[in-house]
Amino acid sequence: MNYVLASTVGAVGMAIFVTFMRMKAAKKPATAKKIILPPIFMSTGALMFIFPMFRVHFLQIIEALTVGMLFSILLIKTSKFEIRNQQIYLKRSKAFVFILIGLLVVRVIAKLVLSSSIDVGELSGMFWILAFGMIVPWRTSMYLQFKNLYNELHGGPAKKNMV
User: Fold this and answer.
1) Is the pTM of this model over 0.70?
2) Helix H or strand E segment including 82
3) In the chain, which residue ranges form alpha helices assigned H by DSSP?
4) What is the DSSP string of 12-47?
5) What is the pLDDT along the chain (163 residues), one digit of tens a residue?
6) Domain count, the chain
7) 75 — phi, psi (to 5°)?
8) What residue numbers bound the domain in which 155 lies?
């Protein structure tokens, strides 16, 4: 149970961190690099699956990916860009903070319920897959929106200096 509590506290800390980072990011122009790098950095977490305690069954992978992709829809709907002063900015969304908190609450409740029937290592692997399944579609959508606005702003296909 200590692992479940520690990971829950960690998840709450990460949610607070992401919320503040998102609010801060909306004040600066967006770049392709800022959109693409978080999933790449997060992908290193897949190294956990080297260790047997974190490995999950195929059906659990499908379940976690499906839930992650469903959660990503909420993030996609609240992540929009706008052109201001000839630069592209992420629009502030009041709903984003509430959605992030809501997703966190759902994840915490799911973790508490599932921790009684699924090993903590396996559960950690499933929640990493869920998070990765959420961030990749969300950031892909953000990148496509950004690219479209970039093309609109610069009158043509995206160039190398887009980042």
Assistant:
1) yes
2) strand 81-84
3) 2-25, 32-43, 58-77, 94-114, 120-154
4) HHHHHHHHHHHHHHTTS---HHHHHHHHHHHHGGGG
5) 566 677 778 777 877 887 777 777 778 899 999 999 999 999 999 999 999 999 999 999 999 999 999 999 988 998 899 999 999 998 877 787 788 788 788 878 888 888 788 888 898 899 899 999 999 999 999 999 999 999 998 886 655 556 5
6) 1
7) -70, -40
8) 2-162
At 13, list the tokens. Answer: 């800390």
Q: Are 22 and 92 in contact (CB under 8 A)?
A: no
Pairing of strands 87-90, 81-84: antiparallel
Place of tokens 């929106």: 145
Taking the C-alpha atoms of residue 86 and residue 101, their distance in angstroms, rounded to an integer, is 33
> 119 is written with which tokens?
């090993």
At 37, which amino acid appears? L
The tokens for 120 are: 């903590």
- Are the C-beta atoms of residues 11 and 107 closer than 8 Å to each other? yes
